[in-house]
Design goal:
7-stranded mixed beta sheet, alpha/beta, about 375 residues, about 35% helix, 6-stranded antiparallel beta sheet, Beta-Lactamase, Rossmann fold
Length: about 375
């Protein structure tokens, strides 16, 4: 379908170009077009907070959603099913891949574009603002790759969407390439969000033929030494990832879990045996982003993170299939361990963030 034939197509094209440019310039991580009664609300997420920009007239709003669907090569005649696609955006001398997801809702078709946000510029590991113990642990993984001097192991980075996990992993991969010459480093991503020199990047399609599981099984036969997998999201992917780590590969992945103890529980729910977890996992990073205080409110974000290594007390708790509290107590006694809340409170003490922001991000009792 030619997008010029869309009702209000010219206006929709101009509007989409403009709002995307403004969202990218503002460093937004997401752009929402939400149908409501009588119009379409436009919202952007900046520094983790979703704010309303404006409400478009219904005709223009619907045409803008259709324009995004055309850009993402989605089926514009199927307005009754959810769809996902990619938008190749070129501007300011660079090109980035953006994720597009559409979903039928009560008043029309809802569209969300995932923008690169802080990924627009690759950051060095030391520049992220992570706690020193976390940076030290990441560097140890980069250089040795596994516990007790082994060559392999799995590093999990956990947290909700928008908590900076991909930014941390990109910085870690950049550090590995810079400090370990001659390694074969491969990433499986959905989508590839920016170029990483020295890394073989493969774009997978979880809903197509080249899934994480299929790509990972295939790439293991091509002599990789370091693997990055965008997300462990199901039983099959978890099984292959654990087997890769157990067979001597360094594997980095994300997992949606609230805490390191929750990450262990998620792996068990996915069918990974406790003895495999204790042997395969090098460590777990939990991460969130707090907004920075400024004279006008908030500006920018700073990470709060914790690192848990797989040591003997933790191995015993996992092997004995302890509950979340048992697992948490096992790693709470690790030398130098600081939970995210303690890290966040230190940022409050330094005047970098505030108590309200800590409660918003970490809750009352995390």
């Amino acid at each position: 379908m030619n997008d010029d034939s869309l009702q209000g197509g010219v206006d929709a094209r101009a509007y989409v170009e403009g709002v995307m440019a403004r969202a990218l310039e503002a460093g937004a991580s997401d752009l929402h077009l939400e149908p409501v009664s009588g119009g379409v609300e436009v919202r952007v997420r900046v520094d983790g907070v979703l704010g309303k920009v404006e409400t478009l007239p219904l005709d223009l709003g619907r045409a803008a959603v259709l324009r995004l669907m055309v850009m993402g090569q989605l089926l514009t005649y199927r307005m009754d099913i959810p769809q996902e696609g990619r938008i190749r955006w070129e501007g300011n001398g660079s090109a980035v891949d953006l994720r597009l997801a559409v979903m039928p809702v009560a008043y029309g078709m809802r569209a969300v574009v995932r923008l690169p946000g802080e990924l627009s510029e690759l950051q060095k590991l030391e520049e992220l603002g992570l706690p020193g113990r976390v940076v030290e642990a990441l560097k140890k993984f980069a250089k040795s790759g596994g516990s007790e001097g082994d060559s392999g192991g799995m590093l999990l980075v956990t947290g909700p969407a928008g908590s900076g996990k991909t930014t941390t992993i990109y910085a870690l991969l950049d550090y590995i390439v810079a400090t370990s010459q001659g390694l074969s480093v491969v990433s499986l991503e959905d989508p590839v969000e920016r170029d990483l020199p020295g890394v073989t990047q493969i774009e997978v399609s979880p809903f197509g033929e080249l899934t994480y599981e299929r790509a990972l099984r295939s790439i293991l036969r091509q002599d990789p030494q370091v693997l990055m997998m965008g997300e462990i999201r199901d039983d099959a992917t978890a099984s292959v990832a654990v087997q890769a780590a157990l067979s001597g590969h360094r594997l980095i992945s994300t997992l949606h879990a609230a805490t390191p103890a929750g990450a262990v529980a998620r792996l068990i729910e996915m069918g990974v045996a406790p003895y495999q977890i204790t042997s395969a996992v090098f460590g777990i990073v939990g991460q969130r982003l707090l907004r920075r205080k400024s004279q006008k409110g908030y500006a920018g974000r700073v990470p709060v993170a914790e690192f848990v290594r797989m040591d003997e007390p933790l191995r015993r708790a996992v092997a004995q299939q302890g509950d979340l509290e048992d697992v948490r107590k096992a790693y709470a006694g690790q030398a130098g361990y600081s939970p995210m809340r303690t890290v966040a409170q230190e940022l409050v003490r330094q005047g970098i963030s505030d108590e309200g922001e800590v409660r918003r991000v970490l809750g009352e009792s995390m």
